[in-house]
Amino acid sequence: MWVKIRATEEQRSRWHAVAEARGVSLSELVRQGLDGVRAVRRRHQPRRVDPELLRELARIGNNLNQLARWANREKRGADAVAVVARLIALDRELAQLRRAHEVPTAEAGPGAVSEDAPC
């Protein structure tokens, strides 16, 4: 069932802000307010992560750590081109992984990665 009420833009904005701060929808805030129940914050449900994605990210992280150790140990300018080339390759791998595991915005929900977010 739908219930319509008249409100100013200021009231509507304020109510939405209160609902968001409490972690509930505006409808839930109104229902609980009218029933005399305090709106309870929803618990965040952790998203399931693909184990293959975790392995790939660990592999890339390992490569980055090896490059950082090498750069700190060697500090030679001549090999900097090789390091930059490898970093570019890792950046491409990360972008590819991100595209492969991106959640479409309609299904995304809070905390999801948008297409224009940096890698």
From TrEMBL:
Pfam families according to UniProt: MobC
Domain Bacterial mobilisation: 54-97
Name of the featured protein: Bacterial mobilisation domain-containing protein
Organism: Oceaniovalibus guishaninsula JLT2003
The organism's taxonomic lineage, starting at the top: Bacteria, Pseudomonadati, Pseudomonadota, Alphaproteobacteria, Rhodobacterales
